[in-house]
TrEMBL record:
The keyword Transferase applies. This is Glycosyltransferase family 28. Gene3D superfamilies: Glycogen Phosphorylase B (3.40.50.2000). One of its GO terms (molecular function) is hexosyltransferase activity. The keyword Transferase applies. Keywords: Transferase. It comes from Saccharopolyspora karakumensis. It holds the Pfam family Glyco_tran_28_C. Residues 167-293 form the Glycosyl transferase family 28 C-terminal domain. It comes from the Bacteria.
Amino acid sequence: MTTLFVATTGGHLAQLDRLAQRVPPAGTALWVTPDSTQGRSLLTHRDAEFTHVVPGRSVAGVLRCLPIAHRIWRDREVTRAISTGSGIALGFLPYLAARGVECHYVESAARVTGPSLTGRLMRWVPGVRCYTQYPGWASRHWHYGGSQFDCYAPVPAHRDRRGPIRVLVTVGTSAFPFRRMLAQLVQLLAPQGALSTTTGRTVEVLWQTGSTPVDGLPIDGVQYLSGPDLDHALSVSDIVISHAGTGSAMAAFEAGLKPALVSRLHEYGEASDDHQDQLAEELLRRGLASYRRDGPVDVAELIASMSWSVRRVDEPSPFSLLPRHERSGRR
């Protein structure tokens, strides 16, 4: 028996990693994800297969997954498959469900008010059980199994107020550029910027720029950080300013940090929709992040974030998968 865990990179893979720790084991585990620095770092000591990227809304990318799904089903005796999306899930779960495999699709925690396009399609696939991480939109079609964010709680922190303030700025691994976020932070984090002059401390910034072009900006950054490099950067940071992506937010939580979030917006070509705004509002409500929908990052909120930490809940509740004989409602 083999449980197949399949997800695209970024927040989807980070969520699946945490989810796998909250579901009962069933045989051996095999991971499938597009080849990336994040995936190879996270899955170094696990049985994993790295495959192609499935671009958003790419039928061809989904179809390229089918022979891989067939081979893995045939060779590894897959009996259960779990995915947190996105498009790669469509290349695996429908085929495996048709082969009698127990299939579970968990919508991303980024989808606060309703499912993604992948989720809307998956909900009609016979044999695939669908889950939301928010009870507010659970229904006979969408079972509420729990939330990724139930694993975290905000707590007061007492950090050293001497020496330089170390800031990590990250736009994550999204294929969409996010120059607006970087540009608005340049002056705030400059050597004589608002953060430095307000606190009387020097500011050291690590810029993780992803696919964002930074020509013309006074930024000496790195495109992508490996998993170990990101962990180290977080471990020495006093402040994290991040796009409102689940993977980046959860990485900050794991390091005990309360991030300041900036949401990507569709109107500026920064995302395919405005789900990051919804996620940021949810994390603000839980006290796990700071967020200002109507304006740029504020120096006061950065200073305040250093007075808070985020801790892992000792024993988070298991993620509730529907039994094999039970399924979400259809049509």
